[in-house]
Design goal:
One of its GO terms (molecular function) is nicotinamide-nucleotide adenylyltransferase activity. Strand 12 and strand 13 form a beta hairpin. The protein is an alpha/beta fold and 383 residues long. The protein has 13 helices and 15 strands. Helices cover 37% and strands 23% of the residues. The protein folds into 2 domains: 178 residues, Maf protein, CATH 3.90.950.20; 195 residues, Rossmann fold. The strands form 2 sheets. Strands 7, 8, 9, 10, 11, 12, 13, 14 and 15 form a 9-stranded mixed β-sheet that branches. Strands 2-1-3-4-5-6 form a 6-stranded mixed β-sheet.
């Protein structure tokens, strides 16, 4: 690694961006450069090399039309971006990187020697194809050129300077492509399932805490009870990043519109609290999105979670689903709540023995919620 490449890697590691990289068919040296410079753990969340045909099919969930193509690189970058969202620390920008190449090998290639790079951030899709002069370089040299180009793409995605002398010849002109997304387009992508969630980090705290403390709800409207509940839950958990989560997709209602989502998000901006917009209404799916998190729920929600009625009457299915949540490292902090006219706490429910350590009570003397968003809307004449 030369001096300019090392300086670029140091700048990447000094940026707040956290990345997942999926690379196949080249640019292997770039991964070594990133990992060999101190600070790699600031940047690299995960690096996967799906090198065999079946490995690539497994990653993509389909057989690509072409394994080495711009479309495949874009698909890899989107998958990497969604993985980075799940693995990143709250409030940090994330980057998904995809690379696929058809470089010199032991057998002569009939087609061009080429590689494709794509990066995905919250508001940008960037992709590039480079065709290399056939026979000009060895495989190792082509890997070096593609590694240098990939490193430049990562630097661009991290918004850091990328000044170095390109090893591409005058005829090897990159074919670059870029799309910028606005907030509405990103929320449309979330509703349609293209991306798994979007973070609004209004807390302005670049926390290194990996565990999220999440209060999920519809927040229509957000009220003081929500704020107090999350505050108390955070004091019980200790280290963690407190945030709210709103699913744009509902289990038994139409999805929220983009304007409805933005209207509810503004409530969190006013009080300076981070909110995550997801597309998963069920807690077993939220547990997959936010592994290791502490979910803050009311006693009414706890009652539904352990009721076989909501699992087609199948007690075994209920145990299976909640055990799956437990395997992700998630726990449920349960606050007291009025249920059918009676105030209930966690101890009022018969939690299955194998799940008891997953449910943690919030003492009633620390918090109790006697009003809901629905009751507030009713009192304000909104229902």
């Amino acid at each position: 690694m030369d001096v300019s490449a090392r300086a670029m890697v140091e700048a990447i590691h000094a940026s707040p961006t956290q990345a997942v990289l999926y690379l196949s068919g080249g640019a292997s040296q770039a991964l070594g450069w990133l990992m060999s410079v101190p600070g790699a753990s600031n940047t690299v969340l995960e690096a996967v090399v799906p090198y065999s045909r079946m490995s690539m099919i497994q990653l993509l969930g389909k057989v690509p039309t072409q394994f080495a193509s711009r479309q495949t690189a874009e698909d890899m970058a989107l998958l990497a971006y969604n993985s980075a969202l799940k693995l990143s620390q709250p409030g940090f920008p994330v980057l998904g990187v995809g690379f696929t190449g058809a470089l010199a090998s032991t057998h002569p290639k009939r087609g061009d020697h080429r590689f494709h790079v794509s990066t995905r951030t919250s508001n940008q899709l960037w992709a590039s194809t480079v065709s290399l002069s056939k026979g000009l370089r060895t495989r190792e040299q082509e890997d070096g050129v593609s590694s240098q180009y990939l490193l430049k793409a990562i630097a661009y995605g991290c918004k850091v300077p990328a000044s170095f002398v390109s090893e591409l010849t005058d005829t090897e002109i990159p074919d670059e492509f870029e799309i910028q997304f606005d907030e509405d387009q990103e929320l449309d992508q979330l509703i349609n399932g293209e991306i798994c969630f979007k973070v609004y980090p209004f807390l302005n705290d670049m926390s290194r805490a990996e565990r999220k403390i999440i209060l999920s709800g519809s927040f229509n409207p957000l009220h003081d009870g929500h704020l107090k509940l999350l505050e108390v839950a955070a004091s019980i958990v200790g280290e963690g990043y407190p945030c709210f989560e709103l699913s744009a997709v509902n289990a038994d209602k139409p999805p929220l519109t983009v304007s409805e989502i933005k209207q509810r998000v503004r409530q969190f901006e006013k009080v300076g609290k981070t909110v995550i917009i997801s597309n998963q209404p069920y807690f077993y799916k939220k547990a997959e999105l936010f592994p290791g998190s502490a979910f803050v729920i009311g006693a009414d929600t706890a009652a539904r979670l352990i009721n076989p009625k909501y699992y087609s009457g199948d007690y075994g299915r209920m145990l299976e689903v909640l055990s799956g949540c437990k395997s992700t490292g998630c726990v449920f902090l349960v606050g007291g709540r009025t249920v059918n006219g009676d105030f209930k706490v966690l101890d009022d429910f018969d939690i299955p023995q194998e799940l008891r350590d997953m449910f943690v009570p919030i003492p009633a003397d620390k918090f109790r919620m006697d009003i809901s968003s629905t009751e507030i809307r009713r009192s304000q004449g909104m229902l």
